[in-house]
Design brief:
The protein is α+β, with helices and mostly antiparallel strands. About 20% of the residues lie in helices and about 30% in strands. Helix 2 crosses helix 3. The two termini are about 30 Å apart.
C-alpha cells in the first residue's frame, strides 16, 4: 500500500542503509579519466538528481571544457565538468564488468591473501564508556550516510544520522517493555570497521529489525555489511523472532544508481520484500537536510528461520552482470 506522509515523521527515520553500507566515497581529484572510463556523478548543484548516477566517458570537449558522459539508461550524452566525475574501478564479475568505487586504504582484495575478516559481536555496557569507540562509530555512521545521501538531499554535508549521546545509549542497550535494542559491532582487533543496530520486539512481540548499517570507508566491498546483517538476523531468530524488518528512504523511479543498487540488494540478495510504502515529497526536512526529489520510505520484511535467520544464499545476483 502507499501512503502520503503529511509530516516529516517518516522523513526523519533511518535513511537508506545503502548508503551507509558499502558505498565508497569518490576520490577527491578527478584522476584517471579517459574515454571509455566508468564514472559516477557527484557534487552537481544545478542538477542534483544526477548525483550518484553511473556512466561512461565518451570524449573530452576542449571547446566546452567538459566530458561527454553517457549515463546508464540514457540515449544522449551529458556534458559534465571533470570536477563532477569520479572514476570507478572495474572488476570482472558474473557475465560482465562490474563498476565499483574504490575505497582508499582498503585491505587486500583477495580474502585468502590476508586475514582481513573482522569479528562481529553484540556491544556491551563496557563499550559505552569507550570514548574512542564512540567517536569512531559516530564518524563512520555519519560519513557513510552522507555519501549515501548524494542526489537524495539538498546538502549531504548537513545530514546528521547520529551523535555521541545516541551512540552511548545504543552501546549500553535500550529497552522499552518487550523491545530490546543493541548495536552490533564489526571489529578488526581494537578498530571498529562497521556496525548495525539490532532490535527484538520491534512494534510486535515476534518482529526483529536491523538498521543504522554502516561500514568504514576503508573496509567497504569486503562483505562486512552482509556479515552484520546475518548476525542481526541470527540474533533475532535465537530470541524467538519470526520475522525481520528493515527500512529504507530511497528513490524508486530508476534514476538514482545507489537507490537501484540497494533495492536489489535487499530484495534479490537478502530475500526481503516491500510490504508498505510511504511517500515523502521533495522538500521535506530530514536530519538537518531536506529532500531534493520525491522519495519513498520502504518497509521491508522477510520470515526468519530458527536455524539462524534465513538470509538468502550468498551468490552474485543477476543485476551484478
Amino acid at each position: 500500500s502507499s501512503v502520503l506522509i503529511s509530516t516529516s515523521r517518516f522523513c526523519n527515520l533511518v535513511f537508506s542503509h545503502a548508503a551507509a553500507m558499502d558505498v565508497a566515497a569518490a576520490p577527491s581529484a578527478a584522476v584517471g579519466l579517459r574515454p571509455g572510463c566508468a564514472v559516477h556523478v557527484r557534487g552537481l548543484v544545478s542538477r542534483p538528481e544526477l548525483n550518484g548516477c553511473r556512466g561512461r566517458l565518451v570524449t573530452w570537449s576542449d571547446e566546452r571544457d567538459r566530458w561527454q558522459v553517457l549515463l546508464e539508461g540514457a540515449v544522449q550524452a551529458q556534458l559534465l565538468k571533470k570536477e563532477n566525475l569520479a572514476p570507478l574501478a572495474e572488476e570482472q564479475g558474473g557475465g560482465g564488468v562490474v563498476a565499483v568505487a574504490p575505497a582508499a586504504g582498503a585491505p587486500s582484495a583477495d580474502p585468502e591473501a590476508a586475514d582481513w575478516s573482522p569479528t562481529v559481536r553484540l556491544a556491551t555496557t563496557a563499550d559505552a564508556g569507550n570514548d574512542a569507540l564512540v567517536a569512531a562509530l559516530v564518524s563512520i555512521i555519519n560519513e557513510s550516510y552522507r555519501a549515501a545521501m548524494e542526489g537524495l538531499v539538498d546538502d549531504p554535508a548537513r545530514f546528521v544520522r547520529t551523535d555521541v549521546e545516541d551512540i552511548e545509549e545504543r552501546l549500553g542497550g535500550i529497552g522499552y517493555g518487550a523491545m530490546k535494542r543493541y548495536l552490533v559491532l564489526a571489529l578488526k582487533g581494537d578498530e571498529v570497521v562497521g556496525c548495525s543496530s539490532v532490535t527484538t520486539g520491534w512494534r510486535q512481540s515476534d518482529l526483529g529489525q536491523f538498521g543504522m548499517l554502516a561500514v568504514s570507508r576503508s573496509w567497504q566491498r569486503r562483505g562486512i555489511a552482509m556479515k552484520l546483517i546475518r548476525f542481526a538476523e541470527a540474533h533475532c531468530a535465537a530470541m524467538g523472532m519470526r520475522e525481520m524488518q528493515c527500512e529504507e528512504m530511497t528513490c524508486t523511479d530508476g534514476s538514482h544508481i545507489t537507490s537501484n543498487w540497494m533495492m536489489k540488494f535487499y530484495q534479490e540478495r537478502l530475500g526481503y520484500k516491500v510490504v508498505q510504502t510511504y511517500q515523502c515529497p521533495q522538500g521535506h526536512p530530514t536530519r538537518g537536510a531536506s529532500t531534493c526529489r520525491d522519495l519513498d520510505f520502504l518497509i521491508y520484511r522477510k520470515p526468519l528461520s530458527a536455524d539462524g535467520g534465513g538470509a538468502a544464499e550468498e551468490k552474485r545476483p543477476s543485476w551484478f552482470r
